[in-house]
Amino acid sequence: MTIKEMKNVHKAIIGFVLVSVVMFGYACNDRSPDQKSKQPNVLWIVMDDVGTEVPFFGHKISTPNIDRLIKEGTIFRQAFVTAPVCSPARSAMITGMYQTTIGAHNHVSSRGEHHIQLPNYVKMVPQIFKENGYYVTNGDYPIVGDGLGKADYNFEWNESIYDGNDWRKRKPGQPFFAQIQLLGGKNRDKRSQLQHAIHELGSSTGLDSLLIPPYYPKDSVILQDWADYMDCIRYTDKQIGEILDRLKEDGELDNTLIILMGDNGVSHARGKQFLYDEGVKVLFVARGPGIEEGKVREDMIEHIDMAPISLAAVGIQVPEWMQGKDVFSKEYTPRKYVYGARDRCGETVDRIRSVRSDRYKYIRNFYPDRPHLQPSNYKDSKKIIQRLRELHDQNKLAPVQEALLFAERRPEEELYDLLNDPYEMVNLAQDNSYGKVLQAFRNQLTTWSKETHDPAPESFEIYTLEMKNQWERTPGEKAKERVARNIEEYKKWMQERATNQ
Known about the structure:
It is a single chain. The chain is an alpha/beta fold. Helices cover about 35% and strands about 15% of the residues. The chain contains 15 helices and 11 strands. The chain has helices at about 5-25, 35, 65-70, 85-95, 125-130, 190-200, 220-250, 275-280, 305-315, 375-380, 385-395, 400-405, 435-450, 460-470, 475-500, and strands at about 40-45, 75-80, 135-140, 175-180, 255-260, 285, 295-300, 340, 350-355, 360-365, 415. Strands 3-4-1-5-6-2-7 form a 7-stranded mixed β-sheet, with helices on both faces. Strands 8-9-10-11 form a 4-stranded antiparallel β-sheet, covered by helices on one side. A hairpin with a 3-residue loop joins strand 9 and strand 10 (about 360-365). Helix 14 runs antiparallel to helix 15 (about 475-500). The protein is globular.
């Protein structure tokens, strides 16, 4: 055989192999070649103040659309936010980074004269998608006008990273990365919103069907508030159904990775703003191309994982600096621990850290001399907190409720056996038989803090700058008076603490 003939045979073999590989790829995929070449979309549906209060976790309400996503996708039974309040949680979500690492850990920061910049190496997720040809949106639902949806990031950013608030405005054939923000549990904050939700639903949740933690009294006001909250979940489910219908109308439902999650737990006395599971454990469901249907994952994940999950799902390389993980990767090793951090919320100064395994949770209170329910304009404006304080003043709370909610001091360390104490009511930190467990979790928290560059507490000077804006943005004269009074109390406490150290 001549050299020329050998080259021709070689070319024929290569051609056959290439065609075979392509055809094999189509044969192994249930999509047609045209569908296969279509770039997937990504949609994040983020619900305000929604933890795990859905039927999957034992609650007796109807949520057919959330149930559908669970049936058609993968749900994580152990999903946690890294911060139990919206702005630090959303700052972490949009970067795939711990809010503490990027300096965005104090709630509602960088709104006034104090400016926080992201580290130079960090990019926001929408920016990465946009650089890869995606139409990038962020909208509240229902969409009204051209304004962007809730962002709530605790750092300087430019709205130009978003193309708009509706994926339907993209160019023909252009893939989209969209965020839709739902009011979720916050619908109960205003009677008009709640009444509208109940009117749309046609009924309200009965008090006898409620599943509430045992550290809350079964008081009529508290029970009704919890029922209102469950109505908000039901209404949110209705909105999710409308969003899914919208995707279907556009022919994009089966080509879109959908991630549904809550930004923190229920707004209650041990929920939102605190590191108990009521505050940090959330609903997290993924559905779409490449996601296993009807799968229940038992391994622990953090909400910062949604960033690398989304990038990897569409073939964009996950940056090495991201602290979240693509939990659907074949190379993924399940976490042994998840972490949480609570810092200043509004004017209320605090610093709490937690580390959790599938069995135990360790919480470190850095300011144990302060009570659990410190002065807080946000918290104290809620009727549930007002009612709890009334019951406390009237000596109508059970001993365990008094101890967990109204003790004058908090323990410096808390340790809970979640298998036997899922409501985190029995602190084992002083139990000598758990000494080795306690030390192991102390060490784990120390290691995480060092490796992730957990920052020092906010200085008195920066607190003063942030509080100037906090007071200015507070609506209502009475609320302004309360915030001003609280600010002065915290400033005094900070100065006394600095003097005594």
